[in-house]
């Protein structure tokens, strides 16, 4: 590749990369039907058991769902005095609501993650009941052999209508009784944590042995696409982990095509979106079935059910535990919770490069206390890491610039003979010891790092509403005054002047318009991403100018 073609080629690659990334994300978001439909048939996403404890089918048998009457409505036979209604819960990180129908967590507001800087007192609702993007956590028990058990439609009772954390933990007890079977569902929250437990204790006061298992699932309606040209898109959909597939996405379109049905030991299942996650994490040795459902148009369920039936003799008790994470994608918390769960911070195929970059970014933030300056120092560190290969490329470009008059003379002399023209130029390169690929290859090896950094900055929840300086109050949003995009365009234009222009007129036009393309593209991108480019461009110009001066001085001394 000719050195003169390097910057237009890399620039074109970057533009195509941005456009392709946004297009694929927008198509994925549009895959499910976007028309908001009537509420899903709640009965159709209740898992059922076969004799082995596996989840089967989408229909509901009367044995598997003892709390439903013939017409499918919730039976009131098992309710007690305080059944029905909503329980409000406040912890130091959550403002949430629990529906006594099933003990479903129907709303989770994240106290430390407000909706916007202008609405700092309004927590961002990750789980919610309002359309167009309903998102709920449902848990329940499944009874075997015709027994009774409360699924996520059963009515529970509670002692209080509201709870507030005052110590290190907060427990919310819910009670269900029917046919001599008492179930106490307790939600246990910990101070400062986004992972919690849903414990379901079964006490058998009946005259026969009881056996069954538990399940947990997320049901949601996908949010409408918020895209537009330049909007950074992120994956919204399901994902799960098994020993064979450490991180596997299952999109809403996949759930429409077929039901997931995987038997697995350990692992996890989750619903993902930009910056946030809801995940179900069984014990590392537990045998579970991971499943999905599409109970109604534009409604999707992804969950897990234990394949290990617990038998509870008369007068005995047993407990089932769901481990849940609902909150921001904080890597160290996810990594500590389950193997590969940190992969839910979706850095794409180059995650193995992006994760170390994030660790370096976090290191600088720990030193500087500001994510903007952390990006600046991360960029300079990457620049330092690639200093030598970049210097090789810049020396090749500088030598090429010094030889530009001689190349122009050769092209003029052999204007009618392209083959002879190239042959003479290659002789010139050989004579002057210039590698025509010297400027390309060192730059191309940086492309994977650039892509990884792009996704790392895009997916890092810590940059959400993170200030830098002056008017940069949120690095995840576009520059309100477009200073960084315009500055970056000017730096790109200046950098072009340090290189010889391409000989081909068409390439010259592409070369000249590249700063304009990037300026327009970056007008809509998060300020944190553009900040990286500005710092990188500035450092590149300083390095290239230094090398150019040295090569020009060497050429001048040689010609004396």
Structure description:
- Mean pLDDT is 81; it is low at 1-8, 23-40 and 57-83.
- The longest helix has 33 residues, at 527-559.
- Among the domains are: 58-223 and 309-322, Beta-galactosidase, Chain A, domain 5 (Distorted Sandwich); 355-386 and 446-559, no CATH class.
- The chain has a nine-stranded antiparallel sheet. Strands 7, 13, 16, 19, 20 and 21 form a six-stranded antiparallel sheet that branches.
- Helix content is 35%, strand content 27%.
- With 560 residues, it is an alpha+beta fold.
Widest sheet: strand ordering: 8-10-11-12-22-18-17-14-15
Mean pLDDT: 81
Number of helices: 13
| Helix-residue proportion | 25-40%
Structural class: alpha+beta
Portion of residues in beta strands equals: 25-35%
List segments where confidence is low: pLDDT < 50 over at least 5 consecutive residues. 1-8, 23-40, 57-83
- Please state the oligomeric state of the protein chains shown: single chain
CATH-level-2 architecture of the domain at 58-223 and 309-322: Distorted Sandwich
Tertiary shape: elongated
Strand element count: 22
Describe the sheet with the most strands. 9 strands, antiparallel
Question: What separation lies between the terminal Cα atoms?
Answer: 32 Å
Rg over CA atoms: 30 Å
CATH topology of the domain at 58-223 and 309-322: Beta-galactosidase, Chain A, domain 5
CATH C-level category of the domain at 58-223 and 309-322: Mainly Beta
